Amino acid sequence: MAPLSTMSRALARSAMKQATTVRTISSTPAVLGSSSTFSSPFKGESKSTKVPDFSKYIAGKSSGNALFSYFMVGTLGAISAAGAKSTIQEFLVNMSASADVLAMAKVEVDLAAIPEGKNVIVKWRGKPVFIRHRTAAEIEEANNVNVSSLRDPQADGDRVKNPEWLVMLGVCTHLGCVPIGEAGEYGGWFCPCHGSHYDISGRIRKGPAPLNLEIPTYDFGEGDKLVIG
Ligand code: FES
């Protein structure tokens, strides 16, 4: 019986040891709970995720901001307007005619230098202009034509400001050749390109040209000056 009691004691001791271990493990949460500083980020507010206080950076009055906005908008508007004005001004200056072009826009002719019964050709805007100092006989001849019989009916009086002076573009109305003066069947101008005849008033009388020679804009200036253009 002695070994049995020894075994029983050993078993009892072992059981007691196991009970102590179980007690120790089961008491661990209580020990941790009383001394731990851990705090879950999901419970309550954490120091690391606190939003800083920016209240001192927020403008106290909204009128200050509005004033600044108005100032900026006004300044940018003024700068843009000045830039636009400068650009448009430069564009218009570039578009305007240069001095030499303006000089060509009008041509002044001294009529005193043209004897009666003579032709003079001047260049105006790149085209020839015929100026004829007509004689009394030529004026009479021009007026004696039956206007209704003309291809391009026009009285001589409608083509001149002063009957003595016939001023017209020296460009054939057919295809643009320059007619020859004091030639042709009507004592006026003749276009050799295709045979058009113009009379002493520059009206088409024969040939393929459909219209009379064109009269440019002109005026008589002071003295014996003729201004074309
Ligand atoms: S261009 Fe003068 S007649 Fe043809």
UniProtKB/TrEMBL annotation:
Assigned EC number: 7.1.1.8
Named cofactor requirement(s): [2Fe-2S] cluster
Domain Rieske: 133-227
Main location, first listed in the record: membrane
Catalytic activities: a quinol + 2 Fe(III)-[cytochrome c](out) = a quinone + 2 Fe(II)-[cytochrome c](out) + 2 H(+)(out)
Membrane topology per record: Single-pass membrane protein
GO cellular component terms, A-Z: mitochondrial inner membrane
Cofactor binding summary note: Binds 1 [2Fe-2S] cluster per subunit.
Enzyme class name: translocase
MF terms (GO), sorted A to Z: 2 iron, 2 sulfur cluster binding; metal ion binding; quinol-cytochrome-c reductase activity
Record keywords, A-Z: 2Fe-2S, Disulfide bond, Electron transport, Iron, Iron-sulfur, Membrane, Metal-binding, Mitochondrion, Respiratory chain, Transmembrane, Transmembrane helix, Transport
A Pfam family it matches: Rieske
Cleaved signal peptide residues: none
InterPro entries assigned: bc1_Rieske_TM_sf, Rieske_2Fe-2S, Rieske_2Fe-2S_sf, Rieske_Fe-S_prot, Rieske_Fe-S_prot_C, Rieske_TM, Ubiquinol_cyt_c_Rdtase_Fe-S-su
Top-level division of the source organism's lineage: Eukaryota
Subcellular localization(s) per the UniProt record: Membrane; Mitochondrion inner membrane
Additional comment: The Rieske protein is a high potential 2Fe-2S protein.
Family that this chain belongs to: Belongs to the Rieske iron-sulfur protein family.
Cited NCBIfam families: Rieske_proteo (TIGR01416)
Name listed for the protein in its UniProt record: Cytochrome b-c1 complex subunit Rieske, mitochondrial
Source organism per UniProt: Cladorrhinum samala
Taxonomic lineage from the root: Eukaryota, Fungi, Dikarya, Ascomycota, Pezizomycotina
